Predict the 3D structure of the following.
Amino acid sequence: MSLNYEDLQSIMKMKTAELSAQGSCEVGKVEKLVEEFYKMKVPLGSEILDVACGSGILSCYLQAKGYSKIDAIDQDFETINDLKKLHLYRNYIHREVRGMRTTGLESNVYDVVITAGGFAKDAINPQDITELLRILRPQGHLLWTMRAAQEERCAEFGLLAANLLSMEKCGQIKIIRHEQYDTNGKDEGEFYLIKRLPGALPYFAEQRVSNDLKEQIFSILMDHTEPEKRIRFYDEWSDKYEEDLVLVGNYSGHTKCVEAFLKLGLNRSVSILDLACGTGLLGEEIASVGYVNLDGLDSSMQMLNQARIKNIFKMHIFASLSGLGSLPLVDDVYDVVMSSNGFAPGQIYPDSIEEIFRILKPGGYLIFTMRDGLSEASPRFGMFENELLELEKSGKCEVTLGPIKFENFVLDHPGIFYMIRKSADLHLAYTDRQS
């Protein structure tokens, strides 16, 4: 950076005008963050990273106070190029924050990490905060401003405060300040200041996804896998399942399900089944937003035992779904059936959808996510979309959403999302089919 005072003031004036044109909310995010940063009295020699740096205006404010060791990271190539021309930062990093080690930066590098508006539904997922903590030095600070969490209207932001409190309880961070603020009496936002505690990040923050884990997961999800072998695998994996899949594997299927479910606006008393519930990741997300009539079903007893510890399901159902009449449940019992990663080779196949319709109430919803590209791994998934189309043509259901593709379902693989509604006049009884 080689800006003199006149250059800095000129750029700051230009960037402030650009930001003002975007609305007072954007101005407020920057002003609040700068105000709180100044209060911290950070030493001038500190290493600082501006995440989702955008216009670069934060660097203008910080340089005006004498800070010079400021780096920028942004996923937009043109943004980085524009900032380079203005010489606003020391280093320019064209990367996105999307899971562990995606920034490409070494651990324990920065004293302060800042972002004004970087956490947003269309930008950085708050679940990826662990990556920002990884690159912070012990006792380093992460501070950010964002829209009020409820305004983002998705599960990841709804759970942000609770997740941070959990990290604090585990001794990984200390929440120094969390407050809501407004700009000119409107545009409510949130400010966070947290400190990374020394030696507190868990082992998964420093490791990459092991090849052994990848091979184990994808070798078990095959058509020819014996059910006993698959169940034994999940039983043995149950105690480390959430650490491996969510925190190392960057698994997001369960949050996608809940995000779509919440948009339905159903009352909190509807009956819900978490199908292939595992340790209860999906059910836990649903329960956290006030839904109370939840059951969990899985073919692994040890997975169910892990879910039982969380005390979120009314019933823990030990069963396998393998076609019409396979579930020990009465007809028309659930308003919603949800499944994240249950549909997979060796687990739940497309031809089991009619059994799910049997236990759904007329007009009920089936919501699920699965890994993209399953048709390549299993011929039985090759006709999935055609089979759904036939179910629609026969009047049994309506595919209200999907297939919708999204990135980073698990282990860098994209995912597919579906929402299907059972026809309001469909009563599919197993006993009727047998007669």
Notes: The radius of gyration is 24 Å. The chain has two domains: 5-204, 212-434.
